[in-house]
Design goal:
With 745 residues, the protein is mainly beta. It has 5 helices and 63 strands. The strands form 16 sheets. It has a 5-stranded mixed sheet with strand order 57-63-62-59-60, with no helix packed on it. Strands 1-55-54-53 form a 4-stranded antiparallel sheet, with no helix packed on it.
Amino acid sequence: MSRLVVALLGAACVLAAYGREPGFAEFQTVQESLARVPPKMRAEWLRKRGYDDSRYTTYRKPESTGLRLVGKYGRGPSVEVTGRDTLVALTLGSEVALISFANPDSPVVLSEIQLNFLPMQSALYDTFLLTCGNGLEVWNISNPRQPVFRHVIPYGVGGFAIVDTFLYFISQDTFHAYSIAHPANPYRVGFCRDSGGVAAATGNVAVLRQPGDMLGFIDVSNPAAPRQVGTYPGYTLCADARGNICCAAFYWSTDYDHFRFEVLDISDPTNVRRLGAIDSVGGWDVHLSGPFAFVSGFQTPEWEFTIVDVQDSTHPHVVSSCATPSNNYGVWADWTSDRAYVADCIGLAVIDITNVSAPVLDTVVLKAQTAQDVWPDGSRAYVADYQAGMRVLDVTQPWSPVELGGFDPVGGECETVVAGDSFAFVGWLPSPYFRSILVSDPTHPVQAGAGLVQTLPADMVLRDTLVYLAGRLRFNVVNVARPRQPVLVGSCVTGDLHEAGLWLEGNRAYVAGAYDGIYIVDVTDPRNPAPVRILNGMSAWGCCVVDTFLYVPDFDDSLHIWSVANLFNVYQLGSAYVRGSGLDVKVLGDYAYVGCDGLGVVNVADPRNPVLVECYQTPDFVRRVVIDSGYVYAACWGAGICIFDTFTTSVRDVATTPQSSWPVRLMGSVTRGIATIEFPGFTEREVHLQVLDIAGNKLGWADALAANRGAFARRRVDLTEQPAGVYFVRVGIGDRVYHLRITKL
């Protein structure tokens, strides 16, 4: 069976393949299939199979909720690349990165534009960047180190093309022609009914990828009155056009994948005809520059980056090709320079084309892929980034996370991560499944040891010198007192678990077993863990326990709360609707933070009557939720990591002076160590901060801060070394004083 057929049609037989819990299995299969499809083609994929495609086709106005996004590490799979001169724009995850290749041997990341959606395509126009997905956004990049948002055209857009001062795209079965003579103020000049997606355009013709496996051609000689005038048969993955020719990659399948690269004459779009073709050349993207067509390649090693000479359009021929590390999506090159760029899923593959007859992979920059898991540890956060390995982030300032380095040897998949002190521990495929990574130098993590465990860890918890891990069929306990020599000390069978989530509470481990419900494992003796109870009837990837309450996000779009005070009498207390299938949950104070189609916040003060109070629309599904030091870390699959504060939904303290005049905010009023105080900037007044314990004793921590010239300033309060209890922070700004309360768990 063709790999593309597996990717695009995998969900069709899902109910037959999984005899139980079809909702969970179907969701999982759809997500795995979508991961192999470029974002700009996902709406088409979903629509053909009868699934809701609104995430990719309908503009969602950014929500104004009480949950506040503090910071974002938006790196994810690289899908599109474009450029101008030495400036390259890479769409990856939920951001667009601007990279300078003025010195090709030392590329410099100038900025990373964080977006609230998965960008599908980007283009550089004049001093502006246009990128599309949830709307078509316009950013001023006259200073590429400080991009400024200017405008959004409120449509769900999968792809677009720019010619002269005109912008063409399709949304909601309508072809739109916009004037961008003034990019910060675009306006529509014409439209017509049509469907599909815009792949390319020239002065008089827009080329569409259309339903029904064909190319469509729109006459735009008069942008005020566009109209479709012709078609060309074949299932097209990509196309580019200039002048009177269009180069396209066509795909079909019998017992294996087939491609054909064609050069079309579009001088008369009512009668498009083929000029020349090459079999066995194709991919997800093609870019024309000079005498060459640069073809990205496909998602399998048989189809790699290829350079095609199209100078004689009737006799195109392959000049050369070059392998890249992973799945190839987008491509861009300037044939007069000595570099080509491939969006290679795990990063930007830079290819030396000084000799076009022998291209060579130079380097891969901005490595990232699917965020499977995240583990905050003090000033760092560790991300299990699937095919991009483990990434290490500096989150000293959570509102501005910075990547320090990564562990990403050639080959392998990073599934989950935990960390403590100078070591991180990762679940890794292929074997050995459990690996110790030395992170004393976070810019250059190195493998320090490996242990033989019985299953690929899907989730892990680090407690003291033991790592508890859950995976398919097995629950394992590993001793990491000697991190360079981890030792498996205990294990037990936990059924046909697939994707597992794990929570440790006292001497019990709670394992979310996807299809098999929740396994409760007694870990009183880590050498002999033993299942003591199975809670059937639930499909979950995650769970957590607080006091005697078990919180389980199920695939019935609900958060369920169970009483586990008595394992012989476990019963459900209540449930609340959450938007989309629940994947993970963590609880802080009176609120449960649920990973779903976004980040849901459920008030659980009354466990018999939990209520969804808000849901933040993240760029992608939230796979894992972790709460640390007053911040919520959400691993958003292809969209990287989103960081939220808990201020607006945690216990609020009112200052002694009305906050409308001098607003002071406490983020992390309920914490395990770190809280953050935010106070106004643009003031000449000194700011005094002082921390006291419940008895009024000063903790010897006081600052007089100089005037701040920013819009606001933040100060971290570190109670890591202090015992649990209630603490007070006195904030003085000039003659105004605020008293804030922190509860350390």
